[in-house]
Design brief:
Beta-lactamase, about 35% helix, Lipocalin, alpha+beta, 19 strands, 7-stranded antiparallel beta sheet, about 600 residues
Length: about 600
């Protein structure tokens, strides 16, 4: 029996003692490959001479309570191992059957479901989806009038559907998919709208998969979870995987709790995602591996159990983006696209998989932590090294001493665009960037620095006097999926601030003045585009900084007076601030611009009825 002194908290013990956190002797009896993986984790970016990492150490470092790993080899499951606990409060160990929320790994399942209906002749990938939907239609606006929306465009995220966050709901307040589409309570986001011309650009969209979910239900004549269970999970012997939400009492007993950045579960322990097609799958790692193996086999022409090889090739090929297929990301290394995969998150969970297109190997890694993304990459990289995956790991950077001309110039803040910045600090002879959890920068020569946790680089340019004139910021997005466009950044003066900093300080007039100045100098500046300002307004709104939120939404209306969505957002902010009259005025204006805005109709009824 472990006796815990009263003065030592469980949280401290959780992260200080591996023997308490992980069952003693967990590795005994495992084959050498598993042990190699456990002791061979590698960071996202490789640096020569850096030692490999230990799984238990990294779980402790990231405060990840539980992990489930399944390795695929030769189109079969090679092994599954589990580590840690399902729930920190209960200390119940993760088992092979433990269910995890896998977030956007759900999109591959939804895509396969649509393709199954294509195989059955019930869905036309390239026909107008409104002609195939029954219970809901895409509202027409200035964007959808220019190009029809098809299932294929929604699957590859170029349909023009708006960005919307993956919102988690407790079981007692779970909306239907139609409520999500219409923006009706208890859904917590606006009605689905289209804010880009369909087929013109990639925009990752959960909303697009909400529409696909409705298509599946309308065409199949049954609920989305029922259809997927019948058409995919049962034929593939995925016994634990489920899209039925909230989880049943029996499934809750084997479902992990979600854990936040501090390593502790949140109140409620499990949130559920609607649309389920975008992020509502619960599964264990071995069941999801069976799903991946079927995709690999279909692509290789070895199976047509769910879809035919030609449709599998369509799913696992680039479309609107070179880095995205249908529900999966495509990985390009050394000039070739040989892998597909995805990272997915829901509140308190992170999951990921990577798999080779043709050779039948890969891995699925599930965690019950908001901090799981980097750990998943480190585990997958370790598996890739131990199993000698072809052209998966990047080449390791060779470090060189920092040039003298850089030493005294690097520290400081650098302006990114017009409304963002990054800061570099120096501790002894090491440099850190405040992005990516204050990651250390490693010098690889020619003015270029890398970090171990984010693909890309930071490169400094010099003038004839050997002084820094600019820095090129070129790193991948938060999940390491895309290398964003490079940004030329200049060093800021000590007292210089960007507009959003003035907003955070409550200096609203000063911030608005700067935003108007940006608009007058460059009306296409990314910092003042409609979507960015709308997202910024909601950041303040969700923090109950109502004056700041109303000001930003008003600015968006000023800049984009013909946008129904801008007025809708402004009305919402006024309503939250208690100004029903201004909310009513702006909902009416939104409805004038978009008569299909059902959210505005609903909110006006509520205001007029005194609710």
């Amino acid at each position: 029996m472990l006796i815990i002194p009263r003065k030592i908290s469980l949280v401290a013990l959780f992260f200080l003692f591996n023997g308490f956190f992980y069952p003693i002797g967990l590795s005994q009896g495992k084959d050498s490959l598993v042990v190699e993986v456990e002791n061979g984790l590698l960071p996202n970016v490789l640096v020569e001479g850096e030692p490999s990492l230990n799984l238990w150490d990294r779980m402790t470092y990231y405060k990840v309570p539980g992990v489930s790993i399944t390795v695929i080899k030769d189109f079969k499951i090679d092994w599954t191992r589990t580590y840690g606990v399902m729930d920190y409060d209960l200390q119940n160990p993760v088992s092979d059957e433990t269910l995890f929320g896998v977030g956007s790994l759900s999109k591959a399942v939804a895509s396969l479901a649509v393709l199954r209906l294509v195989e059955e002749g019930k869905v036309d990938l390239r026909a107008d989806i409104n002609d195939q939907l029954i219970s809901w239609k895409i509202p027409e606006n200035e964007f959808t009038r220019q190009h029809r929306v098809t299932p294929l465009l929604l699957m590859n995220h170029s349909g023009g559907a708006m960005f919307s966050p993956g919102i988690g709901y407790l079981g007692e307040n779970f909306p239907t998919n139609l409520q999500v589409l219409n923006g009706e309570k208890p859904a917590q986001y606006k009605p689905v709208v289209f804010d880009r011309i369909p087929g013109t650009e990639f925009q990752y969209s959960n909303a697009g998969y909400s529409i696909l979910q409705q298509l599946i239900e309308d065409v199949a004549g049954k609920s989305y979870p029922e259809y997927v269970q019948e058409a995919i999970f049962t034929p593939l012997d995925m016994r634990q995987a489920t899209l039925f939400q909230p989880l049943s009492e029996n499934l809750e007993k084997i479902a992990a709790a979600g854990h936040m950045q501090n390593g502790l579960p949140f109140i409620g322990k499990r949130f559920y995602i609607q649309p389920a097609a975008a992020g509502g799958l619960w599964t264990n790692s071995s069941d999801y591996a069976k799903f991946i193996i079927e995709l690999q086999k279909a692509y290789a022409g070895l199976s047509d159990k769910i879809i035919s090889p030609p449709l599998a090739k369509e799913m696992l090929s680039p479309h609107a983006s070179k880095q995205y297929g249908l529900g999966v990301f495509m990985r390009e290394m050394y000039g070739e696209i040989n892998y597909f995969g995805h990272l997915g998150d829901s509140k308190g969970f992170f999951a990921g998989f990577a798999s080779h297109l043709t050779d039948g190997y890969g891995a699925v890694v599930l965690t019950n932590s908001q901090n799981g993304a980097q750990l998943i990459r480190e585990i997958t990289n370790g598996i890739a090294k131990v199993y000698n995956w072809k052209k998966y790991l990047p080449e390791a950077y060779k470090l060189v001493p920092v040039e003298k001309k850089l030493l005294d110039q690097l520290s400081g803040r650098y302006l990114m665009g017009s409304d963002d910045y990054f800061e570099i600090t120096k501790e002894q002879d090491k440099f850190y960037i405040d992005k990516f959890d204050n990651a250390q920068l490693f010098y690889v020569g020619d003015g270029k620095f890398v970090t171990k946790f984010r693909p890309g680089y930071l490169e400094f340019k010099f003038g004839s006097d050997q002084k820094i004139i600019s820095a090129v910021y070129y790193f991948a997005d938060e999940l390491g999926r895309f290398l964003n466009e490079s940004s030329n950044c200049r060093k800021m003066e000590e007292d210089e601030k960007v507009p959003v900093e003035f907003l955070r300080e409550g200096k609203i007039d000063k911030a608005l003045l700067l935003y108007r100045k940006i608009k007058s100098e460059n009306s296409s500046d990314d910092s003042i585009n409609e979507n960015r300002l709308n997202e910024l307004g909601y950041i303040f709104l969700n923090q109950d900084l109502l004056n700041e939120a109303v000001s930003i939404f008003n600015l968006n209306v000023e800049f984009y007076p013909e946008s129904a969505n801008c007025y809708d957002s402004l009305a919402e902010a006024y309503l939250k601030a208690g100004n029903k009259n201004m909310a009513k005025i702006n909902y009416k204006r939104s409805l004038e611009l978009n008569p299909q805005n059902q959210n505005a109709v609903l909110m006006l009824k509520k205001i007029e009825s005194g609710q």
